[in-house]
Amino acid sequence: MFRSLIFLHCLLCIPSLAFAQAAPATKPAAPAKTAAAKVRTAPARPTPTVENFKYGTDSERQVFDFWQAKSDTPTPLVLLIHGGGWLRGDKSSYGASVIQPFLDAGISVAAVNYRLIHQAMEQKVEPPVKAPLHDAARALQTLRSKAKEWNLDPTRVGATGGSAGACTSVWLALHDDLADPKSSDPIARESSRLTCAAVSGAQTSLDPQQLRAWMPNAIYAGHAFGFAAVDRPRDQEFELLLKNREQVLPWIKEYSPIESVSSDDPPLYLDFPNQKTPPVVGQSGPDPTHSAIYGIKLKEKLDAAGVEAIVAYPGHRDEKYGSTTKFLITKLKAAK
Predict the structure, then answer these.
(1) 64: which strand partners?
(2) How far is the C-alpha of 258 from the C-alpha of 332, rounded, in Å?
(3) What is the maximum span of the chain, computed from C-alpha positions, in angstroms?
(4) What pLDDT sits at residue 335?
(5) Is 34 helix (H, G, I), strand (E, B) or coil?
(6) Which of 76, 208, 272, 305 has its CA 20 to 30 A from that of 257?
């Protein structure tokens, strides 16, 4: 395995070099076409109890905002992890419509920023997707370390997000605990496990071979493993990942959420509100990056492991919980 990773390090010099050649000498540009992106006004939201709390030292993006729910007893916590393909996005995208229902239910909230793919590539994080995923875990561990000060119940923590934020949330829910009991760092000794997760438009696999079997027009995952470059289309990133799959397979096994399913995983709610046609496994469909097929295939594995999993999409709505927010509130309030 170590020989293959050494070879992979050399292999990934190719996309990284393309990044350096095509971008300004001082700083490589993000693979996302940010110049064409629409400028969006951040929604109104409650004033955070703590704003831009630093949970890391590797980037200015390693910060979160925290809202403490009013309660005489320790409260559950919901982690909000923004989407944007791990290429763009910000915690400020979460407004009162998302935050206030949790606060009203006596659940505290934290909205997290994390390093993006191009920043991870600049820092030579391998694979780049490790940065956003481990940043989210570190933010969660930091919040747990503040449990006494911020009146939190560290045994009741949920996560939610959309798209890449959903993928991160699902990865956190399914991955083995990252806590290191022997660490000299007290935050690293905290658990990274979740009580539940409820997400929208999640990518549940980052394995290109698996994805093409599920959806022949799948194109999402190449950038996660270092195949991003300025102006390289996402389908070309995907083809590079597919071509080099065997070399990056150890990384796929570690960072593809579906690979971490086990019988002790927490309950999941997987919503796919943008599904425009009935999802059919093995057939191409609209918006393969947010297809309900991701949820259907993950649910199959979770069902086999005996883990509760709800998959909802237009024409296949959930009647028990009704929404990701209600699912999180129900599970976190019942976990006392």
Answers:
(1) 53, 112
(2) 23
(3) 57
(4) 74
(5) helix
(6) 76
Q: pLDDT tens for residues 125-174?
A: 999 999 999 999 999 999 999 999 999 999 999 999 999 999 999 999 99
Q: How far is C-alpha 184 from the chain's CA centre? A: 27
For 247, the 3-state DSSP assignment is: helix
**Token couple for 278:** 């009935």
> Does residue 197 have a pLDDT over 60?
yes
Long-range contacts of 309-314 (CB under 8 A, 24+ apart): 309/267, 309/268, 309/269, 309/270, 310/267, 310/268, 310/269, 310/270, 311/270, 311/272, 312/269, 312/270, 312/271, 312/272, 313/271, 313/272, 313/273, 313/275, 313/279, 314/273, 314/275, 314/276
Q: What dihedral do alpha carbons 259, 311, 97, 137 form, nearest 10°?
A: -10
Domain segments of the chain as ranges:
2-12+45-180+190-334
* Percent over 90 (pLDDT), the chain: 86
CATH number given to 2-12+45-180+190-334: 3.40.50.1820
Residue 208 · residue 280 · CB < 8 Å: no
**Euclidean distance between CA atoms 309 and 298, whole angstroms:** 8
Residue 2 confidence (pLDDT)? 37
Band the pLDDT of 20: cuts 50, 70, 90.
very low
Q: What is the DSSP string of 104-132?
A: HTT-EEEEE----HHHHHHTT-SSTTHHH
- Tokens for 225? 């493993």
3-state SS class at 214: helix
Over residues 256-301, the pLDDT tens digits come to: 999 999 999 999 999 999 999 999 999 999 999 999 999 999 999 9
- The residue whose two tokens read 């916590």 is 77
